[in-house]
Structure formats: structure tokens, C-alpha cells
Amino acid sequence: MAKNKKENPIPEEEVKVEELKSEEVKTEVDSEAAEKQEEPPQQPQRDYEAELAAEKDRYLRLLAEYENYRKRSQREREALYGEVKAETIVELLPVYDNLARALAAECKDAAYQKGVEMTMNQLMEILNKMGVTPIETKDQQFDPELHNAVLHVEDESLGQNIIVEEFQKGFKYKDKVIRYAMVKVAN
User: Fold this and answer.
1) Which of 82, 89, 104, 144 ranks highest by number of CB atoms within 10 Å?
2) What's the pLDDT at 158?
3) In terms of Cα–Cα distance, which of 47, 70, 51 is closest to 59?
4) How many CB atoms lie within 10 A of CB 179?
5) pTM score > 0.70 for this model?
6) How far apart are CA 113 and CA 104, in angstroms?
7) pLDDT above 60 for 16
8) Do residues 95 and 133 touch, judged by C-beta distance below 8 A?
9) Could you state, in order of their start, the residue ranges of all structural domains in the chain?
10) What is the pLDDT of residue 54?
């Protein structure tokens, strides 16, 4: 070994310079590593904030979508309820027609007549409570949105498009016509 040292003599100054350079490289590597270690926590934090903002936005959109769904469902239920109620009322209107015919017919039995009147009044009260109103026709101007003209008569003593006679009573449920009034119109 002693022979090897003599063959490769390295001056002490060169060894010290190499040691200093290697220490500088180590400190540079250590400082770069420290910087890299400091940066990663900041980078994921920014990613977490972005993810949080995206999730919050998604949550708010989902919440708004659910609220819209709930309101739309409520409106649909109310509309369906109104339609079903109107259909039920339409099915009851022939009962009204029959009672009206019974009242119009002559009857010798006063008690029977009184019973039919009471039944008719009770039916009208029920219809009024349900929001059903009869469409007025007598001496009214013909309105195609409310009336169905089945006959036309020429009479100079009456005004134009005046309803002369009602054949079947019309009814409205709230603002919707559930049965048009059948009428005879003058001129």
C-alpha cells in the first residue's frame, strides 16, 4: 500500500478543494431539497382549495336543481289535482241537469217539489264550496269562450249577438270553463 501512495500522490490542497466542492454541492442539494419540500405543501393546498371550490359549486348547483325539481313537482301535483277535481265535477253536472229538469216540470205534490228544491240547493252549495260557478247567459252578449251557440234567431227587437235562450247551463271551475253553456243567439 505504501507503494500505491507513492505512485498516486495527491497533494493535500487538492483534497481539501475537492472536499469543499463536495460540501458546497451537498449544501446546494440540501437547500434545493428543502425548497422542494416547502413547495409541495403549498401546491396541494392550492389544489385542495380549487377542489373545494369546485365541490361547493357542484353542491350549490345540485341544491338549486333539487329546489327547482321540488317546485316543479308541487306545481304539477296542484295542476293534476285541479284537473282531477274538474273532471269529477263534470261527472256531477248531469245530476244538476236532472234536478233542473225536475224543478221545471209541473208537479202536484208540493212536498216532492220542496224535496227536489232542497236537493238542488244543497248541490249548488257543494259546487260553490268547490269553486264552481255557473256561467250567466240571460240577456248577455255572446262570448265564444263561455258559450256554445246551437241555434240562431233573427229578431230585430233584440240586439246583435244577444243570448235569447239557454238550453244547458255552463259552469266554470276557478277560471277554467268546464262546460260551455248551450244557448240560442239573436241576430
Assistant:
1) 89
2) 83
3) 51
4) 21
5) no
6) 10
7) no
8) no
9) 133-187
10) 93
Block residue for cell numbers 393546498: 45
Burial 57-69 (b: 16+ CB within 10 A, else e): eeeeeeeeeeeee
Which amino acid, residue 8?
N
Whether 124 and 171 have beta carbons less than 8 Å apart is answered as: no
In this prediction, residue 46 carries a pLDDT of 64
Secondary structure of residue 98 in the 3-state scheme: helix
Is-contact 124 103, C-beta < 8 A? no
Three cell numbers at 17? 478543494
Which set of grid coordinates corresponds to residue 83?
284537473
Cell numbers for 142: 255572446
Residue-averaged pLDDT of the chain: 84
Burial 13-45 (b: 16+ CB within 10 A, else e): eeeeeeeeeeeeeeeeeeeeeeeeeeeeeeeee
Q: Please tell me what DSSP assigns to residue 142.
A: P
d(CA 177, CA 133): 10
- Selection from 183, 163, 180, 184 nearest residue 93 by Cα: 180
Distance CA 181, CA 95 (A): 16
pLDDT of residue 177: 95
One-letter amino acid of 74: Q
Cα-to-chain-centroid distance, residue 169: 35
What CATH number should be reported for the domain whose range is 133-187? 2.30.22.10
For Cα atoms 125, 131, 132, give the angle at the middle one, nearest 5 degrees. 70
